[in-house]
Design brief:
The complex is a heterodimer of chains A (about 180) and B (about 190).
Chain A: H1 5-27, H2 31-41, H3 47-66, H4 68-72, H5 74-97, H6 102-127, H7 131-149, H8 154-178
Helix pairs in contact in A: 1-3, 2-3, 3-7, 5-6, 5-7, 6-7, 6-8, 7-8
Chain B: H1 14-29, H2 35-53, H3 56-72, H4 83-109, H5 120-139, H6 142-151, H7 162-184
Helix pairs in contact in B: 1-2, 2-3, 2-4, 3-4, 5-7, 6-7
Classes of the chains: A mainly alpha (about 180), B mainly alpha (about 190).
Chain lengths: ~180, ~190
């Protein structure tokens, strides 16, 4: 072996990044059951939900790999995203209990997506710390909530994103002016 | 902090050790800015440890491999633990691996009689091992050290019953193993 210091330094840096990546991939396991539940309960095509699940997994990996504030944003982002996700997944059951059909429940989803996004954005605005970590948490919350709204296509996803942005806007503006 | 006592591992001072703790914790958190400091402080310590336990040709390889493992596992580092102990735990494993590799190589090369191997390399290894053992024996209580030496046939055996002596040997060897583990990180 006996590498020069430059080679050793380069290999050490690569080993560090690969080590972080391995841990980040393991840490992104949350995306699998969340996507599974969303796919199992969706009332339309599974394609958009799977795509959002894939994006959520990639975002979780990227945040954990980067580390620092972005890694610390993973848990708050996932927890906040569970609010719109749970609301949208419960919508068909709620509609059935009220005597509506699944399709009418899906029509109600748009409103639920926006309201869930607002609630999640508000939660993150209160709990979030730095601007970078808040943005990462918002992205994770948006994708987690988006798993339930993806059945509506772009409109559902935009509903969650809009709700989140609106809910977290005061905190984002405050941190933006402080920076 | 601020003490400049040497601990024997690549000239790492108490202040360096504190810095290593902080920088490895930063690296575990994802702060790439701490990379160079960890590299600068950890590598000499790893190399010194490996050189104490291996032949020089193997020591460099083991230290380099340990450094790569240290960085690969940096994200696992728990900041409440001592960074140097974390790093030495990794290099101790590499030392053990290197020894096993060397042992296998010797077996496959069918060296006729290891006891008569008087190459400078084996003499150096033997000398190092003897020095480490003497150091560990010196840290034992005198009665335990005498028991170990008596068991090895290097000191007169005390006039006690066989079972009593065996128990004393067992206890003394347990303590010797503990000291060896603390000093060298391996059994």
């Amino acid at each position: 072996m006996a590498w020069t210091e430059t080679t050793l330094r380069r290999r050490a840096r690569r080993a560090y990044e690969l080590g972080r990546l391995r841990r980040a991939i393991v840490a992104a396991w949350h995306a699998v059951p969340l996507t599974g539940v969303a796919v199992a309960t969706t009332c339309s095509g599974t394609g958009p939900t799977l795509l959002v699940g894939l994006l959520l997994g990639a975002t979780l990996i990227a945040c954990a790999q980067r580390g620092g504030g972005m890694a610390r944003a993973v848990v708050p982002g996932l927890l906040a995203g569970l609010v719109p996700l749970a609301a949208t997944l419960a919508a068909p059951a709620l509609a059935a209990a009220l005597g509506d059909s699944c399709s009418s429940a899906c029509r109600l989803l748009s409103g639920i997506c926006v309201a869930g996004g607002l609630a999640a954005g508000g939660l993150l605005a209160v709990a979030g710390r730095g601007r970078g970590s808040l943005l990462a948490a918002l992205a994770i919350a948006g994708l987690t909530g988006g798993l339930g709204c993806a059945a509506l296509g772009f409109a559902g996803f935009a509903g969650v994103a809009g709700g989140l942005a609106f809910g977290a806007a005061p905190a984002l503006l405050r941190r933006g002016s402080a920076a | 902090m601020g003490r400049t006592t040497q601990n024997g591992f690549g000239g790492v001072t108490a202040a360096d050790r504190q810095t290593l703790n902080l920088c490895l914790a930063r690296l575990a958190d994802g702060d790439r800015g701490a990379f160079d400091t960890v590299f600068r402080l950890a590598f000499p310590a790893l190399r010194a440890f490996a050189a104490r336990h291996l032949h020089v040709a193997d020591a460099d390889d083991a230290a380099q491999q340990a450094l790569l493992s240290l960085f690969a596992r940096a994200a696992e580092y728990d900041p409440s633990r001592d960074a140097l102990a974390f790093a030495l735990g990794i290099v101790a494993w590499e030392v053990r691996t290197a020894r096993r590799r060397r042992q296998r190589r010797r077996e496959t090369c069918a060296v006729p009689d290891l006891a008569t191997d008087t190459s400078p390399e084996s003499e150096a290894i033997d000398g190092q091992l003897r020095a480490s053992l003497a150091e560990a024996l010196g840290a034992l209580r005198p009665s335990d050290a005498a028991t170990v030496l008596a068991q090895a046939g290097l000191a007169p055996r005390p006039a006690v019953a066989g079972a009593t002596f065996r128990k004393r040997v067992e206890r003394a060897l347990d303590r010797l193993r503990d000291i060896w583990r603390k000093c060298h990180g391996v059994d």
